[in-house]
Amino acid sequence: MNKKMKILTYGCQMNVADSERMAGQLQTIGYEYVDDFDAADLILINTCCVRESAEDRVYGKIGELKHLKRQNPKLIIGITGCMAQKEGESLIRRAPHIDFVLGTGRTSELIRVVQSLEEVPSHIVDTSDVNGSEGESFSQYPAFSPAQNVFAEFVPIMYGCNNFCTYCIVPYVRGRERSRLPEDIINEIKAAVKSGIVEVTLLGQNVNSYGKDHKLANFAELLTEVDKIEGLRRLRFMTSHPKDLSDELIAAIRTGKHICEHIHLPVQYGSDPILKKMNRVYTVDQYRRLVQRIRQNIPNVSLTTDLIVGFPGETDDTFNETLDFIREIKFDAAYTFIYSKRSGTPAAEFDNQVDDAIKHERLKKLMDVQNEISLAINEQLDSQVFEVLVEGASKTDETIYTGRTRTNKLVLFKHSEEQPGDFINVKVTQPQTWLLKGERV
Question: What is the β-pairing status of strands 385-393 and 423-431?
Fold first, then answer.
């Protein structure tokens, strides 16, 4: 009888991709996926530590698993991901029912660790080699997703980050940038497409830096080569750092056949003094001119961004500059965050930390402005027809299905015979702030 695994993933798309590849590893030693924690022989929590709230949720879930260990002493509980790298042995000291902790550079050791624990129960902690070669190791295993009707896949093209933004823990827990070999990426995507995948998203902390280490291809060249893969219908990527987004990449998107007209381009803030303190190494005007070049070359592009409120040193003036900036740029959508101290980052030690109540007040103002912009942009799409990749039933109504346009707009429509992975045309009948409602045509 096959052993059962349950994997719980917190955080970014990179963590989702990592979880799918760890599941692929575990499948090779006889594990099959289950949704029920109670039925699992192995529970893996793939963690995030970018924000304090993510860590709090992980600790809460670890505590909940204690009773399962009592019921089944043979249950193996493992912690992976960024929080595992950051906290290491302290996780087991805090929760001794955890069996193993594997850092971000050691996930290729998963099979060895699990097989060892199956034979001899113990505690294993390995957070060495944060700059490990997990890309090469992972490419041996096909990604496995527990979801039904899988039609899209995340494909990591590089690991780590060299940017050292002062608020960000990622370079410390993911290590320096390491690019996978172009042929490994191409072969993985060809295999995925052959298995029925129609949409691929290339992942990296900063995809625009791809290839700077091995110099076999830059990101624009890689994107162009992936675009040529027969059977691939949509090609996406994230995330782009503004300092490295080249005119060559803009041209590749413009001329590509399957490359989607959506760029997620985190600006983080709209005032130069704060950008400098964040170590973002671009100015508001440089970002502005980059957006102008993108829109001149890709007229129907959708631009989304990340924004942080309450960074140390933020004032009413710098915050109002940011509001003016987003009114000027007019992002399709923005992911907005309250600054959260991360121990081990320079910003955690900065003076002039912002009061929590002020952070929340400013966040609401920022969201109100962005919501007005998003609604105005979406209202311009009324009565237009878009190709939509069907994703599946809405979480709240099985008679309503969801899908996405090439520009990454979420679309809701009444279900008939569509199945996840189908491409259909939908006419927008009711644009809203965060989504579009429409009817199939």
Answer: antiparallel
Half-sphere exposure at residue 261, Cβ-oriented, CA atoms within 13 angstroms: 18
pLDDT at 133: 57
Adjacent-strand bridge partners of 101:
79, 125
Query: Per residue in 100-156, pLDDT tens?
Result: 999 998 988 999 999 999 999 999 999 987 776 554 455 566 777 777 668 999 999
On whether the CB atoms of residues 268 and 314 are closer than 8 A, the answer is: no
pLDDT value of position 128: 87
C-alpha 369/C-alpha 378 separation (Å) is 15
pLDDT in tens, 6-18: 999 999 999 999 9
Long-range pairs for 363-368: beta carbons < 8 A, 24 or more residues apart: 363/309, 363/310, 363/336, 363/338, 365/319, 365/323, 366/307, 366/309, 366/319, 366/322, 366/323, 366/326, 366/334, 366/336, 367/336
Of the candidates 292, 220, 261, the one whose C-alpha atom is nearest the C-alpha of residue 405 is 261
Q: Record the tokens describing residue 80, joined without a space.
A: 């992976």
DSSP 282-338: --HHHHHHHHHHHHHHSTT-EEEEEEEES-TT--HHHHHHHHHHHHHH--SEEEEEE
pLDDT in tens, 73-94: 999 999 999 999 999 999 999 9
Q: Considering Cα of 201, then 203, then 209, then 213, what sign does the dihedral take?
A: negative
Distance CA 377, CA 381 (A): 7
Please list, residue by residue across 377-396, b when 16 or more beta carbons sit within 10 angstroms of its beta carbon and e when fewer do.
Answer: bbeebeeeebebbbbbeeee
* Gap between the Cα atoms of 137 and 251, Å rounded: 33
Which residue shows structure tokens 């899988």?
Answer: 150
Q: What is the CA radius of gyration of the chain?
A: 22
